[in-house]
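Cross-posting from the modeling subforum.

Setting up a comparison between two proteins and wanted a second pair of eyes on the formatting. Protein 1 (sequence, then structure tokens):
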Amino acid sequence: MPAVLAVGALLFSAGCSSDDGGSPGSASASASGSAVRGSSSPGGEATPAAKGSVEVVRTVAEGLDSPWGVAVLPEGGLLVASRDEGTITLVDEDSGKKTELGEVPGVSAAGEGGLLGIALSPDYASDHMVYAYFTSASDNRVVRMIYDPKRSPGDQLGAPDTVFKGIPKGMIHNGGRIAFGPDGMLYAGTGESGDTGLSQDKESLGGKILRLTPEGEPAPGNPFPGSPVYSYGHRNVQGLAWDAKQRLFAAEFGQDTWDELNAIEPGANYGWPEVEGESDDSRYRNPLAQWHTDVASPSGIAYAQGSIWMVGLRGQRLWRIPLKGTEASADPQSFLDEKYGRLRTVIAAGGDRLWVTTSNTDGRGAPKEGDDRILELKVS
């Protein structure tokens, strides 16, 4: 097993039981307050530099209300989901103009629930389907809708077709990130809704990463026959991304001690609630990197320039985790520390660019004039 490189003293912070990171605990950690597992990987992959850089190029858009999921349209434009309003807005990435496309019916926004992740169909060019993960009155579910830009603004979303339902809901830990993988299957990160026992129950949809066909059936080749469950033992997954070799990574909220970035393997058990962060128990997969909860509370992740980029809510910063294979090749490095408040979503924008959304109007931040906003970053 690779050696563990511990950076900084072990800190215990209290009161981070919610996914978004509530009030800060009494302990604090510096940007280096993390632990990294390092090893080499086969295949002769180029390893990114140990130290990177981030430049804020511009503000793409302002005045967004509780932005959560973001999808990039191939014809240009960003679709942005409002958690609390239950609406999807088209943002012109050049001018910053915002056009509300419509409201997703059935969204029940309370606590950490509402309209969360969105993703485009793998066949978007022909079917114009937009997928959305949201909290309803009874559960968390995934629907799909036709986006018709020829209709009048405010009425451009078709009636939702429920693709998958029955994911446990709660005031906390609703998961919510969805993404289509390189295999064309739909992946969904779920939370255990505050019921920790669900994470280890492979019959439950809570505390899992699910893998579905675009029609919402358990995907072929899943590790548990007939089940949508792809991995389990998660607390609350809100970040999904694939690297250049199509390997899946996921960010996960811890409770009081460790937040995690995991390399995901089908059928693997990531330990919650039996362990939080790294352990010596071989039954559970260890994270490739972990952070004290006051410097992370991670939501979205993206892959660019050989690194995973992870945004933090309570931590109010952007983390860079350089990769070699499925291991971190150097200590994580933080940027934008407390400059823009809470950060929710990060999207690879091609080449050396990222788009990052703030999350200061979600009831837990301190909104400033212009919040919430989308930033364009140049990274290395």
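Protein 2 (same layout):
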Amino acid sequence: MRSTRTSAAPRRGRRTALAATGLVAALALTATACDGSADSASDKPEATTSQAADGGGKVQIPAELAGKLKEHGIDADRWKDGGWKDWDKDKWLSDAQDFVNPVIEGLWKPDRMQSAKEADKTVTTKDASAGQGVSDPAPAPVRAQAERTPYHRNAAPVGKVFFDSPDGPAVCSGTVVKDVDHPGKSNLVWTAGHCVHAGGSGGWYRNITFVPAYNDYGESEAELTNANPTEIAPYGNWWADWASTSNQWIQGGSETGGEGAAYDYAVLHVKPERGSKSLEETVGAALDVDFSAPSAAEARKMGAWGYPAAPPYNGLKMFKCVDIPGRFSLSPALPTMHRIGCTMTGGSSGGGWFRVRNGKSVLVSNTSIGPADNSWLAGPQLGRDAETLYQNMSKTYGGR
């Protein structure tokens, strides 16, 4: 039964500048319980809240986006009034340069977020055995552990990616990453390609939004009934005004990952639904990306973070798995992927994988595919192709 409690006033006060210390501690001390002082209200960052436009509100779409929609035969006024729900395959924007994601303020309300379904890529037994002779033995399952709350203190860069697909609202995970061309003011989010684009059979998803530190205090569904927006989205909603994924994913991605799985990564450039500060300034944390594609021996341990939404999870809480990585390949012709034991399910897709390098956590992969029994996860190695995608995003859109 859902609770009907009245939510507490939003926790506000002094913002803390974080260096993702929780992630470093979790990776470096995974076998050791970490002590920590109790959270106080003064440690809660100021929230950037969003409010729904009222029934008579007029949602404005910038002229350049309206023009881009018009190029594809889509009326901007109809789009904002619900036309985005029309998934006519002849008008499904597919190519890399076709991305359009105008802000529809108030669309992603707490209830709509909770209704979003997991976006997962499950490989079949046949798929999983395709790389025999290339892949290392399947790892033993690692039970996912709940991240400590509040998330803004222990895993500030991690959040949820919401989007609309032909099947309705969907959800993935994502990570705030640094922008090399705009230090300290990044608006970049790393996630999976299949969280922004349907792959070879479709096109770009719509209404893509990032919510860092979603459900900051890990409250239950009952506790979130009538919750204040700051409890759901302590830093507000951040809309993707541009997204980039690999051509390999756009052309070869499929329901089971397909030939695009080894290139299943994406970078979002986001802007706040309300407010003017950058994402990094608002959250107080962002991670470097490691494009060295380290071997298992070099990496030693990797940790995957995300919000699993398929049973036995419900997408409301953040979890993590830490394991020694192995190699996984769907085909000898494709790059080898990283694989770790992990029981996280769909919804964790796109969530960052981290390793400790020179004493700090860096993003080294993202969750892409896993088996039907949810015993392991695999993610792409981030090498030269991924770095080029990232650099182009930083140079071309980072300053917006």
